[in-house]
Design a protein that fits this description.
Blueprint: H1 22-50, H2 59-84, H3 93-117, H4 123-145, H5 149-169, H6 186-189, H7 192-196, H8 202-210, H9 216-219, H10 228-241, H11 249-257, H12 259-295, H13 302-353, H14 358-363, H15 366-384, H16 386-405, H17 410-453, H18 455-460, H19 464-513, H20 523-564, E1 574-575, H21 578-588, H22 593-613, E2 617-626, E3 634-641, E4 646-651, H23 657-665, E5 668-677, E6 683-686, H24 697-702, H25 709-718, H26 722-727, H27 745-759, E7 763-767, H28 775-786, H29 791-794, E8 798-802, H30 808-811, E9 814-818, E10 824-827, H31 833-843, H32 883-894, H33 896-926, H34 933-977, H35 980-985, H36 988-996, H37 1001-1012, H38 1018-1049, H39 1051-1063, H40 1065-1071, H41 1074-1123, H42 1130-1173, E11 1195-1203, E12 1214-1221, E13 1226-1230, H43 1237-1244, E14 1249-1256, E15 1259-1260, H44 1266-1272, E16 1274-1276, H45 1287-1291, H46 1301-1305, H47 1308-1317, H48 1321-1326, H49 1334-1337, H50 1341-1359, E17 1363-1367, H51 1375-1388, E18 1393-1397, H52 1401-1404, E19 1409-1414, E20 1417-1422
Parallel strand pairs: 1-5, 4-8, 4-9, 6-7, 7-8, 13-18, 13-19, 16-17, 17-18
Antiparallel strand pairs: 2-3, 2-5, 9-10, 11-12, 11-14, 14-15, 19-20
Helix pairs in contact: 1-3, 1-4, 2-3, 2-5, 3-4, 4-5, 8-38, 10-13, 12-13, 12-16, 12-20, 12-42, 13-15, 13-41, 15-17, 15-20, 16-20, 17-19, 17-20, 17-36, 19-20, 19-34, 20-42, 25-27, 32-34, 32-42, 33-34, 33-37, 33-42, 34-42, 36-39, 37-42, 38-41, 38-42, 39-41, 41-42
């Protein structure tokens, strides 16, 4: 039997030894952990063995197995000793030792499996070995106290071996990985203790501290489980299996995708709850021990009192260290889950975008879903796990309160009920407000993106200031909606503060005047009760605010779910003979097996023949409508395109040519009939609206296809790009800008065609690819493609070509003529002159060859802009930048006086929060039995709540909207005033990213003061810890700031990718690039995930370190109170301990707030640098202009030499250009693509730097602010400007900000007449008239150009200016309509001076003066 009879009992401890009983140790330290290990180990080992082996065998594995064998041996020895030593035997000894032996075997199996099949060591095995190591050390002490040396030695050896195992498990397996992957990082191969204590983060923090050039690649991989491709595969599979349609469907699906992650979060959080509630009892024991020291001073009790004191210090260490480890580990696991869910949702957003129609993709702002909604999910998910835990903590806390204040704890239930009701009410209000805010943000982002994508054309029309006001109005509307949301938040904060601050007075009112503290207040009861109450209040506050965050998360998930459920595009084509084979297969299944084999063999042979003979494209009685419409635009279309044939498509504007071509791609509605495409392969597609990516010329041509030098050279040669590439600064590595904004219109079309040719598809669909090319270049390319030895002829490629080029008649095998009334006629022979004349009548173009404007290929001066990073996209570095200046800018944006008021309020709030506890200490020490002190205690709480409410409301309702509006205004003004060279070099996604884009310190000081007051000896410790914290803050901040900047910058590529995908869906699907584009997107997502995840991780590292510091403070405070007599009082130690419990959280909030301020300054710095470094156009007008100017329309160029940028050096857009245009003269500019025609207009509009003089009506244009100049001229550009608004807004864009709608509607008759004259009113009227959204009208490219012409005519009537500039204003319009429009222009601008650029010579044939340019010089003038 055991040495002490008490060892047979489970409880109480043996006070003579100051030790637990052996039975207690057998159950708690043996049976319990061993049973848990035996239950968990088989499942963990099996899960590991299911995975593919990833680690090779080496010495480390055998070392682990050797140590495991040693542990097993010592456990067996312990079993033998416990059986043989009868005086150490208890009724639980045999069960405990046997279970321990089996647990050792099970854990050894887990270690072996995880070593070979997992990159990390097992959390289960590491936790078991580490915990039982400490327990074995404790048991070793127990055995030695009882003189059981063999058992004590065995336990000590076991503990030593387990320590060796812990260290072996911490050795990374990086060098042992069988298949290295870029997704593998430091955390992936770190040991469990390294992950638990965040030691794996130290190398990154150290690198960030030493370097200011931290990059995404320096972060390393996050782990295979974070790979975007894997997340998409798992999430996509589950979504396809059970797509969510209910309100919580997507949320449930996210939970199903990562079920084990929730367990990994809840377990440590439950442990953290237990450790947190142990702190008040530790405080109670410290106070009790301090009190017992003053009442008992006998020598006989000093030894046991010292041991008890050491035990209290040990308990303090265990409580605080345990909380630091489990709380931060649980929080970190929740951030891991959040990152995985974010990755899964963003990957599905990309994938869904590739399956939408163009119309749906343009309608929905995916960028908003990815930013605001994902952020809402992030905030809600971090609170989701805290709500049930908070309720659990509240219940436990109230039970523990009942042990201290008796029945008075029921008053806390009032706070619980109030918190629950308030949380529910405000949760609904906040979530609805957030949803409304997100909708308005989505609308603003779409409109902002629309403006940025058309910025050069908008500025050409003088709409820059108008658009600044427009964007400001959009922002103001957003702020108005956000303000309502913030008001609800303010009320929520007020209620939370009232509940939080009013609960302690309510509790002590019951305790003083009812039950619990009848003898007056005392430190032993009051401060533990306050500490426990804090642990009840905090969870209640978290639950109330967390519920709102969760409701916001659910609204965000609903929006994303709604997007996921958006109807996808349906390909209604029949692809080759695959559908026929499927039908044949159903029939053959009814036959006998032998007949099936014969029929299958026969069908295969027929299929091979059919593959050669079946036409690539065949229409049979097809009715076609644009996507999303059910009214046929084309009826009963029937035609066949034979293999290797050229089919020309001709017709007027709006006759349905583009819709017809879209139907071949599966991008139109097939209402009747069948469209058969020979095989499901890539289609070489060129849209009339060119789609290019913000990449190099070479990358745009090659795309996602494998590179082939011969194919590449051929595509470049045929498209006449060689000479252009030779003159680019970086050759074919030149970055062309957003949608090719650094190129001329002709270069963009030729580059798009080169991409289609490089694809070498068997079928090509080309939509008006020669509209931006001069006639000689167009015919040369056409001949190289379709001539007798043309490339596409020799390649036997089938081509469907929509064109206005008359040369197509000589080469086409058939012509499809669209009459504009829904009928398509097929002309298979053009030998008869009558048929030829009929088609030429459609084209309205003489067939004679046009004279060559110039020889050789030329390039646009615009395209030679160097690809330098703009200040908005470059790396931001704080070093060398004046912090004072930035803080000044920060304060200026908020308003200095408003900020000062906010700081004063916040300081008062911080002081008042701690003041009740200080007041309580004074009450206890001065008059503990005088209940009148309660009046002061409750009054302070009320004042604190009111101050807090005013502070929060002042910030949300006043300061935040003010700063947001001011920064947005300055940024938008800078964007609209920037030079053309800057716009062409800056990615629109980067600008859009920037459009998206602190006083708790005093509270920390107040808490530190309370800690200092707890003991005179604490001054030394606190000073050292403060110094350490300052160093820590500086060490942490340098890396955190850089990671935050990386996280902000990582958004830009995603924004750009979304914008490019949504605008190029037809091309992507035609080229069969969906998978390649998704793979590219996944790489971008992986890169963006790294800083996103690491930012949360280093915040957890900071929290852990601060918790460790508070642990050190608590240990020092407990040691001083216990071992230094008369160093403190019970009230002082109670107050000090309470502040220690909360100082870590407050310190973390302070450093986090400081970090957010610093990173916000980083965003502010980006805006500041953008504002000061962006080259701006002059804003001052020196010349005095009359109300109507130009009145005559006289234009003079005198020796003008122009450049696109001052940095261009010898790269000249215009060289010594001189000419004079008399009032009312009509002038045509001609020349090959890139000859400088557009540069003349751009220089006249003030876009280019130039020398020489330009006079308009004898006024030097350099003395006029460019925006004012452009607003006085009428410009019709080759790029049609389309605004996100009604038809009326698009016709009168200068009145888009007009508040008096009735005043604008007075002109409706005038607008209708103008649309009727251009044959657009009937179509507009069908869609709702002038109030219809322009996007819903569905105008073709040519019709949109006609709308822009109507806009110009109306503008002329408003301002009366006499100069009209037309730059390829009718390039997408057929010749017949073009002739009608030219007549309309002549009538509308009969008394105006007109400068017209056109590649179609008939457009400028009747001009009074024709000026021919070549390489930026005037080479000929003809009258």
């Amino acid at each position: 039997m055991a040495t002490f009879a008490a060892d047979q009992s489970f409880w109480p401890p043996i006070h003579a030894l100051f030790d637990f009983t052996l039975t207690f140790e057998d159950v708690v330290m043996g049976i319990a952990p061993a049973s848990l290990a035996l239950l968990s180990a088989p499942w963990v080992a099996r899960s590991a063995l299911r995975e593919e082996r990833c680690i090779r065998t080496n010495f480390l594995l055998w070392l682990k197995m050797l140590i495991a064998g040693g542990i097993f041996a010592t456990d067996v020895a312990t079993l033998a000793l416990r059986r043989s030593l009868t005086d150490a035997h208890t009724h639980t000894a045999l069960a405990a030792t046997i279970l321990t032996v089996f647990a050792s075997v099970a854990i050894s199996a887990v270690i072996y499996a995880h070593h070979l099949y997992d990159l990390q060591s097992s959390s289960l095995s590491s936790t078991y070995v580490a915990v039982t190591m400490l327990l074995d050390a404790t048991r070793s002490r127990s055995f030695f106290l009882r003189d059981k040396v063999p058992l004590g030695a065995a336990a000590a050896v076991t503990a030593g071996l387990k320590l060796a195992m812990v260290l072996a498990e911490e050795v990374p397996k990086t060098g042992l990985i069988l298949h290295p992957s870029p997704h593998v990082g430091r955390e992936s191969t770190s040991g469990f203790l390294s992950r638990l204590c965040f030691l794996w983060v130290n190398p990154l923090l150290s690198y960030g501290y030493r370097h200011d050039d931290l990059a995404v690649d320096d972060i390393g991989g996050l782990g295979p489980e974070f790979a975007a491709e894997l997340l998409h595969r798992n999430f996509g599979r589950r979504w396809r299996e059970s797509p969510a349609t209910s309100g919580f469907g997507l949320a449930v699906l996210c939970l199903r995708c990562t079920p084990l992650a929730f367990l990994a979060i809840l377990l440590p959080q439950l442990c953290a709850t237990g450790f947190a509630f142990s702190k008040p009892f530790v405080l109670q024991q410290v106070i009790a021990h301090l009190g017992s020291g003053s009442s008992s001073s006998s020598t006989s009790s000093s030894s046991s009192r010292s041991e008890a004191g050491n035990a209290v210090i040990g308990a303090t260490t265990l409580a605080f260290v345990g909380f630091a480890l489990t709380n931060n580990f649980g929080q970190h696991r929740s951030y891991r889950l959040l990152t995985q869910i974010r990755g899964a949702l963003v990957t599905e957003l990309f994938a869904k975008c590739t399956r939408l129609s163009m119309k749906e993709a343009e309608k929905i702002s995916v960028v908003t879903l990815m930013t605001a909604d994902i952020q809402g999910i992030a905030q809600g998910l971090s609170q989701l796990f805290l709500i049930p835990l908070s309720l659990l903590q509240a219940g436990i806390g109230m039970y523990l309160l009942s042990l201290i204040v008796s029945y008075s704890f029921v008053l806390v239930i009032v706070a619980v009920l109030a918190s629950t009701l308030a949380g529910y009410s405000f949760g609904i209000g906040v979530s609805n407000g957030y949803a409304r805010w997100n909708r308005i943000v989505e609308s603003r982002v779409k409109k902002t993106s629309n403006v940025l994508s058309q910025l050069p054309s908008i500025k050409m029309q003088g709409l820059g200031p108008t658009m600044v006001k427009f964007l400001e109005n959009e922002r103001a509307e957003e702020m108005a909606v956000a303000k309502k949301y913030r008001v609800v938040q303010s009320w929520q904060s007020l209620v939370a503060l009232l509940i939080d601050i009013a609960t302690p007075p309510l509790l002590f009112a019951g305790a003083l005047f009812w039950t619990g503290l009848q003898g007056g207040v005392n430190a032993k009861q009051v401060f533990p009760a306050l500490a426990i109450l804090g642990m009840v209040q905090n969870p209640l506050t978290v639950a109330m605010k967390g519920y709102s965050s969760v409701m916001v998360m659910m609204k965000s998930l609903d929006r994303i779910q709604e997007f996921f459920n958006t109807e996808e595009i349906r390909d209604q084509r029949i692809m080759g003979h695959s559908d026929l084979e499927e039908a044949g297969e159903k029939t053959k299944l009814q036959q006998e097996s032998k007949l099936i084999e014969l029929e299958t063999e026969k069908q295969d042979q027929i299929g091979l023949l059919e593959d050669e003979t079946r036409p690539p494209v065949e229409f049979a009685n097809v009715d076609i409508a644009p996507l999303g419409q059910n009214t046929a635009l084309l009826q009963n279309v029937s035609f066949t395109a034979k293999k290797g044939s050229l089919t020309a498509v001709v017709g007027g504007v709006g006759s349905g040519k583009s819709t017809f071509l879209h139907s071949i791609l599966g991008e139109a509605e097939i209402l009747q009939g069948t469209v058969t495409v020979g095989r499901d392969g890539p289609v070489g597609y060129c849209d009339q609206v060119v789609w290019l990516r913000n990449a190099s010329i070479r990358d745009n041509i090659v795309g996602s296809s494998p590179f082939d030098q011969e194919r590449y050279d051929r595509a470049v040669r045929i498209c006449r790009l060689s000479a252009d590439i030779d003159q680019f600064p970086e050759g074919d590595g030149y970055i062309i800008g957003s949608n090719g904004c650094n190129l001329s219109g002709g270069q963009r079309q030729r580059l798009s065609l080169a991409r289609a040719l490089f694809l070498e598809a068997r079928l090509m669909v080309l939509d008006d690819i020669f509209s931006a090319l001069d006639h000689p270049t167009a015919t040369a390319i056409f001949s190289d493609l379709f001539g007798e030895n043309g490339f596409l002829r020799r390649a036997n490629c089938t081509v469907i070509l929509s064109t206005h080029l008359p040369e197509c008649l000589d080469m086409a095998d058939q012509v499809l003529v669209f009459d504009g009334k829904g009928t398509v006629s097929v002309r298979t022979t053009l030998k008869q002159e009558k048929q030829r004349r009929e088609i030429l009548e459609v084209l309205r173009q003489p067939t004679a060859e046009q004279p060559s404007a110039s020889n050789g290929s030329e390039m646009s001066a615009k395209s030679v802009l160097p690809a330098k990073p703009s200040p908005i996209t470059g790396k931001i570095d704080f070093r060398g930048v004046s912090r004072a200046g930035l803080y000044g800018l920060f304060l200026k944006s908020m308003g200095i006086w408003q900020f000062c008021v906010f700081v004063v309020l916040q300081m008062m709030m911080s002081a008042l929060e701690v003041l009740p506890d200080i007041y309580m200490r004074i009450w206890i020490e001065v008059a503990p039995t005088n209940n009148l002190y309660y009046i002061g205690y409750s009054s302070i709480a009320i004042v604190c709540a009111c101050t807090g409410a005013v502070t929060v409301a002042f910030y949300f309702v006043n300061i935040a909207p003010r700063a947001a509006m001011r920064l947005h205004q300055s940024f938008s003004e800078t964007v609209m005033s920037s030079t053309l060279s800057f716009i062409t070099k800056t990615d629109s996604g980067s600008i859009l990213n920037n459009f998206f884009s602190t006083a708790t310190f005093f509270g920390v000081l107040t808490q530190i003061g309370a800690i200092l007051a707890s003991s005179k000896w604490m001054v030394i410790a606190v000073v050292v810890i403060i110094a350490t914290t300052i160093v820590l803050q500086y060490y942490y901040l340098r890396t955190s700031r850089q990671v935050r900047h990386l996280e902000l910058e990582a958004h830009t590529p995603l924004y750009t990718q979304f914008l490019e995908i949504s605008s190029g869906l037809r091309h992507i699907r035609a080229f069969k690039w969906e998978e390649a584009i998704l793979a590219e997107s996944f790489k971008l997502i992986d890169s963006s995930q790294k800083p996103f995840y690491m930012l949360y991780t280093i915040q957890r590292w900071l929290s852990f370190v601060l918790d460790c510091m508070s642990t050190l403070l608590a240990i020092i405070l407990a040691a001083i109170a216990i071992h230094i007599p008369n160093s403190t009082s019970q009230a002082a130690i109670g107050l000090g301990f309470m502040q220690v419990i909360t100082v870590a959280t407050t310190s973390e909030q302070t450093i986090d707030a400081w970090t957010r301020l610093e990173t916000s300054l980083g965003s502010l710095l980006r805006v500041h640098l953008f504002n000061i470094e962006t080259p701006l156009e002059p804003q001052e007008t020196l010349a005095k202009l009359p109300d109507v100017w130009p009145q005559a329309g006289k234009i003079e160029f005198e020796e003008v030499t122009a450049r696109y940028s001052p940095d261009d050096g010898d790269k000249i857009a215009l060289r010594n250009v001189s000419f004079a245009i008399t009032p009312g003269q009509k002038v045509g500019l001609r020349g090959r693509t890139g000859s400088g025609k557009s540069s003349v207009i751009l220089t006249l509009l003030g876009f280019l730097e130039y020398s020489g003089r330009i006079l308009i009506d004898d006024v030097d244009v350099s003395t006029i602010a460019p925006d004012k100049l452009r607003a006085r001229l009428i410009t019709i550009s080759q790029h049609s400007v389309k605004f996100s608004g009604t038809v009326r807004n698009n016709l009168l864009p200068f009145q888009i900000n007009e508040m008096e709608e009735e005043k604008i509607r007075e002109r409706d008759g005038e607008l209708q007449d103008e649309l009727c004259r251009l044959n657009l009113w009937e179509l507009v009227q069908e869609k709702g008239g002038l109030d219809a959204k322009l996007d819903d009208v569905g105008l073709s490219g040519g019709q949109l150009q006609m709308l822009c012409i109507a806009r110009a005519i109306l503008r002329h009537r408003d301002i009366g200016g006499k100069i009209v500039l037309v730059d390829e204003g009718t390039s997408n319009i057929d010749y017949e309509t073009d002739a009608a429009i030219q007549q309309a222009l002549k009538e509308a601008f009969a008394d105006c001076t007109m400068i017209t650029i056109a590649h179609r010579t008939n457009t400028i044939d009747d001009c009074d003066l024709q000026i021919e340019l070549s390489k930026g010089e005037v080479v000929k003038k003809e009258r």
